[in-house]
Amino acid sequence: MFQTIRPKRASDEIVNQIKGLISEGKLKPGDRLPPERQLVKEFGVSRPTLREALNSLVAMGFLEVKQARRTFVKSVISERIEDPLSRIIKTDTQKIFDLIEVRKAMESWASFQAAQRAMDEDIKRLEEIIVEMTKAFDEGRSWEKEDADFHLAIAQATHNTIQTHLMSTIYGLLRESVARVFTDREKVKKLIRQHYQIFDAIKNRSPNKARRKTLEHLNYVESEVMAFRNQKR
Fold it and tell me: What is the pLDDT of residues 205-222, one digit of tens each?
C-alpha cells in the first residue's frame, strides 16, 4: 500500500524555488533569468540538473525560452486569453470598449494599491519609464512600448502577483490599441501629462488621487478610441 519515501531530486528543488519566487512576485512576467553559468553556481548543481529543472518549468508554462536561448518568466495566465481577444477586437471594434471598461476596474484598483504599497524601486521604475517615453516622443521615436510598460509597472507596484500576470497577459493589446489611435502629437502630449499625474499621485502616496487620475486617463483614451472609430466609418 505504501511506497518508500525518496529524497527530492535537486532538479525538483530548483523547480520549487523558482515557482515560489514567481508566486511571491519576486520573479515577474518578462524577467530574464541569469545565465546558466550563474544559476549553476548559485544553486550549486550541475548543468544537466539545472537544464532538467528549467525544461520542466518551460513544460509547465512558468518559463519560456526566446532571444538566443535566453530564459524568461512567462505569465501564469494562459496566453490563449490574448490571441482570441485580439481577433475579436479586430473583427468587432465595439469590443475594444469592453477592454477599456475592464482596464478601468483593474487599473484604478492597481493605482490605488500602488500608492500605498509601492517601494522605492517601484517609484524609480515608473519615473524611468515616463522619462524614456517623453524622450522617445520628443525624438520622434516609437513610444508605445513605454506606454504599456508604465501600466504594467503600476500593476507590479501593487505587489499582487495575479494582478501583475493579468496585466502582462493584455500587454500586447495595450501597445496595439494606442499605436492605432494616438497619432496626433498634441494628443500624445496629453497622454504623457496624464501619466505624470498618475505617477505623482503614486509617488506622493495619494491612493484616491491615483485612482481618480487613472480613471480620467482611461476616460480620455476611451473618448479618443470612440473618435477614431467614428472617423473610420
Answer: 999 999 999 999 999 999
Cα first-last separation, the chain: 70
What are the structural domains, with CATH classification, of the chain? 10-73 (1.10.10.10), 79-232 (1.20.120.530)
For residue 184, what is its C-alpha cell?
A: 496626433
Q: Which long-range contacts (CB under 8 A, 24 or more apart) does 122-125 make?
A: 122/153, 122/156, 122/157, 123/157, 123/202, 123/203, 125/153, 125/156, 125/157
Give the Cα separation of 159 and 155 in Å (integer).
Answer: 7
- Helices 95-117 and 207-232, axial angle in degrees (round to 10): 160
Is 78 within 8 Å of 166 (Cβ atoms)?
Answer: no
Alpha helix locations (H) across the chain?
Answer: 10-24, 36-43, 47-60, 82-91, 95-117, 120-138, 144-157, 161-169, 171-181, 185-203, 207-232
Please check whether residue 55 is in contact with residue 64, taking contact to mean a CB–CB distance below 8 angstroms. Answer: no
Residues 6+ apart with CB under 8 A from 188: 137, 143, 182
Report pLDDT digits (tens) over 62-80: 888 886 678 888 876 555 4
pTM of the entire predicted model: 0.70
Q: Which of 183, 117, 129, 182 is nearest to 153 (CA)?
A: 129
